[in-house]
């Protein structure tokens, strides 16, 4: 593509060399530079891409986009100085791939919990209604029928535009995408045009990256602040930070809620392990999803579908046919009548939501056993909080390993234990080996008891010492039940 076309709407502060060039590819990793490519020098947390400009040129890069011009200028190379390489990259990538986000309706969902569920539900609803769609989520990327394993909640902006361009090419009308706080701060959604932005909730998470809750809130809010006036912003009015998201947005404002007045209002009429009877805007329907947190997820998906012009009755019929999202409140019932719930809940709020949902369903004659841990190399401040929640809201909590990564699993467990209140000391035990912890839960459980295995959900690995080992909670439960004859 001609360089001049790629540079449309990008403020260039200084140009050295000719703009009459063809660009074969855009890269921000010098190792991926090829003949005729454009290399964007990004300032990362670990390395500065400006140090690798010559390396990119050696591999064939003919255009360099940077914030500081290098001391050595090579005659046949074009150098473009910009104020912010990271922001420029988004617009360069969008232009290079023909601005695909303008050619389909792109819907972004952000918040601490529920992003994967809402985007996956929307993808399934719209496919059910006969619309070709794309999905970009933590679990997987889907372009029409093609499934691509996921690498990040929000992929880099080049990869995003590649996938969106492919979605346009195969005739997709809609793309549903999780928007993470990391992705917002690192400009991974720069240059994209969102038709709708949805906000689920905001609770304690990712403070290892954002450092303070205010920074985390600001990151989410930035997504709404930067929406165009043609966009629609839908927020959770029951969340204390929900309306904060709308404060400076130019987008049309909409709300959803279970507790307060809102554009999209819902009520939970009945719920059990098989599903819920819900009422959305005075229409009753049944869903196999369960738990109050899922009522919020469904309500946001419903609101987005209606704002996209879908027929309300058809949307509710499609919701009634939905299956549970992989690793989100998935249930397994053993032959002996023990209920297992496998859920991805790995934040204090998510764990509390799942435990509260189970406690609303159970009659209190059954015991509730919670197996959980916390990930290593992540926000440490949530560990004691999760220890407190699990022991307060379960009959027995079994603290174990999640993905310890490069941390000592025993140290993580100690930090979780620090949050247990003295009156709950008798309600927990610690077993570092996750398989043994699940085994202990099965051994302890009697018919009708409920075992929540939380934290990993859809994941099929355990990261120990930086090495990924195969581990699947659902598979492990089924194997142990067979082995133990339960």
UniProtKB/TrEMBL annotation:
Residues in domain Mur ligase C-terminal? 327-457
Free-text description of this protein's post-translational modifications in UniProt: Carboxylation is probably crucial for Mg(2+) binding and, consequently, for the gamma-phosphate positioning of ATP.
**Binding-site residues, meso-2,6-diaminopimelate:** 378, 402-405, 455, 459
Q: Name one GO cellular component term.
A: cytoplasm
Domain of life assignment = Bacteria
Q: Which reaction does it catalyse?
A: UDP-N-acetyl-alpha-D-muramoyl-L-alanyl-D-glutamate + meso-2,6-diaminopimelate + ATP = UDP-N-acetyl-alpha-D-muramoyl-L-alanyl-gamma-D-glutamyl-meso-2,6-diaminopimelate + ADP + phosphate + H(+)
Where does it primarily localize?
cytoplasm
The EC code for this enzyme is: 6.3.2.13
User: Motif (Meso-diaminopimelate recognition motif) spans which residues?
Assistant: 402-405
Entry's InterPro entries? Answer: Mur-like_cat_sf, Mur_ligase_C, Mur_ligase_C_dom_sf, Mur_ligase_cen, Mur_ligase_N, MurE/MurF_N, UDP-N-AcMur-Glu-dNH2Pim_ligase
One MF annotation (Gene Ontology) recorded for this entry? UDP-N-acetylmuramoylalanyl-D-glutamate-2,6-diaminopimelate ligase activity
Q: Where in the cell is it found?
A: Cytoplasm
Name its co-factor(s): Mg(2+)
- Gene Ontology terms: biological process: cell division; cell wall organization; peptidoglycan biosynthetic process; regulation of cell shape
Question: Where along the chain is ATP bound?
Answer: 111-117
Q: What metabolic or biological pathway is this protein involved in?
A: Cell wall biogenesis; peptidoglycan biosynthesis
- Give the protein's biological function: Catalyzes the addition of meso-diaminopimelic acid to the nucleotide precursor UDP-N-acetylmuramoyl-L-alanyl-D-glutamate (UMAG) in the biosynthesis of bacterial cell-wall peptidoglycan.
Q: What is this protein called?
A: UDP-N-acetylmuramoyl-L-alanyl-D-glutamate--2,6-diaminopimelate ligase
Source organism: Epilithonimonas bovis DSM 19482
Q: Which gene produces this protein?
A: murE
């Amino acid at each position: 593509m001609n360089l001049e076309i790629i540079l449309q709407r990008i403020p260039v502060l200084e140009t050295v060399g000719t703009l009459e060039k063809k660009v074969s590819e855009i890269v921000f990793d010098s190792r991926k530079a090829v003949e005729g490519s454009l290399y964007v020098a990004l300032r990362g947390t670990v390395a500065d891409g400006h140090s690798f400009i010559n390396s990119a040129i050696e591999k064939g890069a003919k255009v360099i986009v940077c914030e500081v011009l290098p001391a050595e200028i090579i005659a046949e190379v074009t150098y473009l100085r910009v104020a912010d390489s990271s922001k420029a990259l988004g617009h360069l990538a969008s232009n290079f791939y023909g601005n695909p986000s303008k050619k389909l309706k792109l819907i972004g969902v952000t918040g601490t919990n529920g992003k994967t569920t809402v985007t996956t539900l929307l993808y399934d609803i719209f496919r059910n209604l006969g619309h070709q769609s794309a999905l970009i989520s933590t679990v997987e990327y889907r372009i029409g029928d093609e499934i691509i394993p996921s690498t990040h909640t929000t992929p880099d902006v080049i990869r995003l535009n590649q996938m969106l361009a492919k979605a346009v090419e195969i005739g997709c009308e809609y793309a549903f995408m999780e928007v993470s706080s990391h992705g917002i701060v690192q400009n991974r959604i720069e240059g994209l045009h969102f038709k709708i932005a949805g906000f689920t909730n905001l609770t304690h998470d990712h403070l290892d990256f954002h450092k303070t809750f205010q920074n985390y809130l600001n990151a989410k809010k930035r997504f709404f602040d930067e929406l165009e006036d043609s966009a629609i912003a839908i927020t959770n009015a029951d969340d204390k930070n929900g309306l904060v998201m709308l404060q400076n947005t130019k987008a049309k404002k909409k709300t959803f809620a279970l507790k307060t007045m809102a554009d999209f209002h819902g009520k939970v009429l009945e719920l059990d392990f098989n599903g819920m009877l819900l009422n959305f805007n005075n229409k009753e329907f049944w869903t196999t999803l369960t738990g109050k947190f899922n009522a919020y997820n469904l309500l946001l998906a419903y609101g987005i579908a209606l704002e996209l012009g879908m027929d309300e009755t058809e949307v509710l019929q499609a919701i009634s046919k939905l299956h549970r999202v992989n690793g989100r409140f998935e249930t397994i019932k053993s032959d002996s009548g023990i209920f297992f719930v496998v859920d991805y809940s790995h934040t204090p709020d998510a764990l509390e939501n799942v435990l509260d949902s189970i406690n609303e369903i159970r009659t209190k004659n059954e015991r509730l056993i919670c197996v959980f841990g916390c990930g290593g190399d992540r926000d440490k401040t949530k560990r004691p909080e999760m220890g407190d929640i699990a022991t307060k809201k379960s009959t027995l909590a079994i603290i174990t390993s999640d993905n310890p990564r490069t941390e000592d699993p025993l140290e993580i467990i100690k930090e979780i234990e620090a949050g247990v209140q003295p009156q709950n000391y008798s309600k927990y035990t610690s077993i570092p080996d996750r398989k043994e912890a699940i085994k202990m839960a099965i051994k302890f459980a009697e018919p009708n008891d409920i075992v929540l295995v939380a934290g990993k959900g859809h994941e099929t690995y355990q990261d120990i010492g930086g090495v990924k080992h195969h581990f699947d909670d659902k598979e492990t439960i089924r194997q142990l039940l067979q082995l133990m004859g339960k």
